[in-house]
Amino acid sequence: MRILLIEDDTVLGTAVRDQIAGDAHSVDWVTRLDAAKDAMAGTGYDLVLLDLMLPDGRGAGFLKRLRGRGDATPVIILTALDQVSDRIEGLNAGADDYLVKPFDLAELSARIGSVARRYTGNPNPIITHGALDIDLASRSIRRDGRPVPLTAREWALFEAFLARPGHLLSKAQLEEKLYAFDAEVESNAIEVHVSRLRKKLGAGVIETERGMGYRLGAP
Questions:
Q1: 46 with 115: CB under 8 angstroms?
Q2: For residue 216, what pLDDT is reported?
Q3: CB contact set of 192 (below 8 Å; sequence gap of 6+)
Q4: What is the signed CA dihedral for 90, 95, 97, 98, rounded to 10 degrees?
Q5: Which pLDDT does position 12 carry in this prediction?
Q6: What is the pLDDT of residue 184?
Q7: Left (φ > 0), alpha (ψ -120 to 50) or beta: where does 144 sit?
Q8: Residue 121's pLDDT is what?
Q9: How far is it, in rounded angstroms, from Cα 55 to Cα 34?
Q10: Separation of alpha carbons 200 and 148, rounded Å
Q11: Which of 71, 75, 94, 184 has CA atoms 20 to 30 A from the CA of 203?
């Protein structure tokens, strides 16, 4: 997934960024709401991690405006505000989940996975696709009972297909799932990763629509 982290605490922000990057997600990190607005205007995110107290405003207001214009991007609030009234405000503003600082980074990973599964229609972390048994929580795959190791980028790409089974994804859409703003994208990166996934998971796991994009193959 591509995740936007909106957090002005540099120590926590670094820890969260490293945690979710280690979970094979692409992450863009901003420290102000105006920067977050610009980021979301130019990029389609799968999930947002939002602090409630930012230097240029309150996260709850930002979230209300987001929902007000029909943006349904999943949002998890990360905040030091631990009063029940603060939680109610965040949830009523449109948050999907809420974590009070300090929190365990492993719990954050689990919450991200849970929210993402709800939005993609796969609440069960274990799914089967043909000969593949896929554990979305642990990001592990078995093919005919045998474990198949994937790199972080291979998993991120495959996860994008799992999130939208049957849908055609363009090369540009897939590149957004793999890389953050400051990473260089080689012109043949998607083709290379798709080829590797086919070798590891099966030739028909990803189908190509020439000149248009790729989709998850039939089970």
A1: no
A2: 93
A3: 186
A4: -30
A5: 95
A6: 63
A7: left
A8: 59
A9: 10
A10: 7
A11: 184
Tokens matching residue 6? 């909106």
Q: How far is residue 140's CA from residue 96's CA, in Å, rounded to a whole number?
A: 25
Helix (H, G, I), strand (E, B) or coil at 149: coil
Tokens 């999130």 correspond to: 163
**What tokens were used for 125?**
């972390």
Match 């996975």 to its residue by tokens. 113
Q: Are strands 97-100 and 75-79 parallel, antiparallel or unpaired?
A: parallel
Q: What is the predicted pLDDT for the residue at 181? A: 46
Low-confidence ranges of the chain (pLDDT < 70): 119-125, 179-185
Instruction: Decide if 8 contacts 31 (C-beta within 8 A).
Output: yes
- Tokens 């009972």 map to which residue? 145
Continuous H helices in the chain? 10-22, 33-42, 59-68, 84-93, 105-120, 152-163, 171-178, 189-201
Side-chain half-sphere CA neighbours of 78 within 13 A: 27
In tens, the pLDDT along 196-212 reads: 999 999 999 999 998 89
**3-state SS class at 78:** strand
Q: How far apart are CA 77 and CA 155, in angstroms?
A: 25
